[in-house]
Design a protein that fits this description.
Helices cover 39% and strands 19% of the residues. Helix 5 crosses helix 6, helix 8 runs parallel beside helix 10 and helix 9 packs antiparallel against helix 10. Strand 3 and strand 4 form a beta hairpin. With 319 residues, it is of the alpha/beta class. The longest helix is centred in the C-terminal third of the chain and has 17 residues. The protein starts with 22 loop residues before the first strand and ends in a 5-residue tail after the last helix.
Length: 319
């Protein structure tokens, strides 16, 4: 990690630089040292003039204690995941290890642009919102695709219906009092921690509003997720979410989207009969749900799930 310090003063919504809120950054990781180092460098070199305290949580892997360091207004602390194994428990371990007024998340394979923290702190200072998000730059192979959420898309209805992938977990900053209060910690009961970010942001939308910085301020390495082809975990998580959140059952587009994703996962597993049955169920809920047709094509062996996933990733999307 470099020794570079912030090069200019951040906006000071709460007074002089010394009064700027402490921002706790949580990075959960497992055996990706090179990517982790890039993520840490990007956090350390933020232009924000206030304190940034980064907690790196090693989940089911040996902590690299040599990463720990500190300066006047930057620090890196290394801890183990002391809660449920997996991403959800690791995030919660990091949250509870800090005390800062604001909490931000960064995946270990993503990189923040230099002004990310500065602009989000300013956005929250001028808003009653509990949570702030920014846009992303999706990086896949040799392609980079910017995706920025529209403020009007950050409502419970739109999040449930469309997922709004632009509001990536690595863009999230939230007030600690809301995180430990009405929103709550990350759900450690989700199978394999799959979709923990979506579950959490739905609860954030139920608890309050979002401040949206309409710029792509995080580089996201697409298609590297450990979940990208863990199809049975995806199915189990969808079933869990459908049982937990009644809001999915109140909107046919939202329900059709989840049914379509479930059908695709079944098809990718080679469970042809189940996939075609789930495809038919999806189309009864929403005949316009494109994932149903993709799932049907995979189930009928017209195209592979991997090929469709690759096409989607190149466009900065998932399925």
């Amino acid at each position: 990690m470099t020794d570079q310090q912030p090069t200019h003063d951040a906006a000071a919504p709460d007074g002089p630089a010394g009064a700027l809120p402490v921002v706790d950054v949580v990075i959960a990781t497992r055996d990706r040292p090179e990517l982790l180092q890039k993520a840490l460098d990007a956090v350390w070199n933020q232009t924000y003039a206030g304190p940034i305290r980064c907690t790196v949580v090693f989940d089911q892997s040996e902590p690299r204690t040599e990463l720990a360091r500190s300066s006047e207004n930057r620090s890196v602390t290394v801890v183990r995941n002391v809660r449920a194994p997996g991403l959800a428990g690791a995030r919660n371990s990091g949250i509870l290890a800090g005390e800062g007024e604001l909490v931000a998340f960064c995946d270990d394979d993503d990189e923040w642009l230099p002004t990310k923290v500065e602009k989000q702190v300013a956005a929250l200072a001028g808003s009653p919102a509990l949570t702030a998000v920014t846009g992303i730059i999706v990086k896949y192979a040799d392609r980079s695709v910017p995706r920025v959420p529209a403020p009007e898309s950050m409502t419970l209805r739109q999040l449930v219906r469309n997922r709004v992938m632009e509001a990536h977990p690595s863009t999230v900053m939230v007030r600690r009092e809301a995180l430990l209060g009405p929103i709550g910690l990350v759900d450690e009961e989700l199978p394999g921690s799959y979709g923990e970010d979506f579950d959490w942001i739905i609860r954030a939308a139920q608890a309050g509003t979002f401040a949206v910085v309409t710029e792509p301020l995080v580089q996201v390495l697409w298609g590297q997720s450990m979940f990208s082809q863990r199809w049975q975990t995806i199915i189990d998580s969808i079933d869990y979410s459908l049982g937990k959140h009644t809001v999915f059952h109140e909107d046919h587009q939202a329900l059709g989207r989840l049914y379509g994703r479930r059908a695709f996962a079944l098809a990718a597993l080679g469970r042809r009969r189940d996939a075609l049955g789930q495809t038919a169920r999806t189309l009864r809920v929403n005949p316009k749900e494109r994932r149903a047709y993709l799932a049907g094509a995979v189930a009928l062996r017209l195209v592979s799930a991997e090929r469709l996933m690759n096409i989607a990733h190149k466009r900065g999307h998932g399925i």
